[in-house]
Amino acid sequence: MEINMQIAVASGKGGTGKTLVSTCLLRILGDENSALIDTDVEEPNAGLVLMASAPETANVSRLVPEIDYNYCNFCGSCAEVCNFNALLVLNEKVLLFHELCHSCGACAYLCPLAAIKEKEHPIGVIEEARLPGHGRVLTGRLNIGEAQGPPLIKAVKKQGERAALRIIDCPPGTTCAMIESIRDSDYCLLVTEPTPFGLHDLELSLEAVEMLGIPGGLVINRWQGEDGELLALSGQTGVPILGRIPFSVELAQAYMQGRDPLEAMPVLLDILSDVFRQIKGALS
Q1: How far is it, in rounded angstroms, from Cα 199 to Cα 189?
Q2: What average pLDDT does range 11-40 have in this prediction?
Q3: What is the pLDDT, as a whole number, of residue 222?
Q4: Is the pTM of this model over 0.85?
Q5: Average pLDDT of every residue of the chain
Q6: pLDDT tens figures, 105-116
Q7: What is the mean pLDDT of residues 118-147?
Q8: In whole angstroms, what is the distance from residue 228 CA to residue 193 CA?
């Protein structure tokens, strides 16, 4: 396969079918040099769908400040420079709120007494599993209680960057985690559904994609013969509808039971193959 491409699969809200599309694309397009990268680090499930077992794991950390009380005089400079209120200086104590720290290092760099060092703080793991014939599945899994997903998302994307075809299964919504997930992608495929909730969240996702300057297209899941207002939105934004996956009870049951969706709905192979053909055409 002579492909060097990163496709982000995102959605405005959860439950629209982005993991279905991501995993099916890997099954259709993947080879030994492909990777599906699950950046939904709070609730990763692509590995479950693909029945990827016995993963290799690697710990991921980020830098947070550590106060050396042998030098600190509680001047408060560190708290003043922190834009995220991660430090609070009391009379003889500096409180650190790791969950608020963005690891920018400003407090350590600007401390007038060099009383702050940076130390590694574990935030999660990267799980890696091989799917013979389809490449690898890389999963970022955030530790319980951790609030900073983007550093782990960067790490799991970096581990997968050697693969020629990279499919990013993004977190839902339009938070920092979604932005970090789609960043640097060649194309963003937005999975939606023809409902009022789907339309509202899709509009927000389209704004994020446009902000990053990434070409995008739509796939309507659970399609029942009507595009609803999605057709008008596509016309207004110029973001094309690349495919429509019909509503199917059989497909939903197969998906819940862990069976291959492409066997439950054979036409899905043609739909997603055509979606990829259009993506290649848009990028050529």
Answers
A1: 15
A2: 93
A3: 93
A4: yes
A5: 93
A6: 999 999 999 999
A7: 94
A8: 9
The encoded tokens of residue 36 equal 């599906």
Tokens of 253: 């049951």
- Burial zone of 140 (CB within 10 Å; 0-12 exposed, 13-18 middle, 19+ buried): buried
Dihedral in degrees, nearest 10, Cα atoms 8, 176, 161, 41? -90
Q: Is the pLDDT of residue 39 over 60?
A: yes
Of 146, 215, 145, 205, nearest to 16 by C-alpha is: 205
Distance CA 160, CA 279 (A): 21
Distance from CA of residue 214 to its chain's centroid? 15
Q: Please state, in angstroms and rounded to a whole number, the distance separating the CA atoms of residues 10 and 197.
A: 15
Which tokens belong to 243?
């495919």
Q: Are 18 and 169 in contact (CB under 8 A)?
A: yes
Mean pLDDT, residues 262-277 taken together: 96
Share of the chain above pLDDT 70, in %: 99
Residue 221 phi, psi dihedral angles, 5° rounding: -100, 155
What is the CB-side half-sphere exposure of residue 281 using CA atoms within 13 A?
9
Q: How far is residue 14 from each of residues 19, 234, 284, measured CA to CA in Å?
A: 10, 21, 31
User: Rounded to 10 degrees, what is the CA torsion of 265, 269, 275, 279?
Assistant: 150
Instruction: Give the bridge partners for 190, in sequence order.
Output: 10, 218
Q: What is the pLDDT of residue 1?
A: 52
DSSP symbol at 68: -
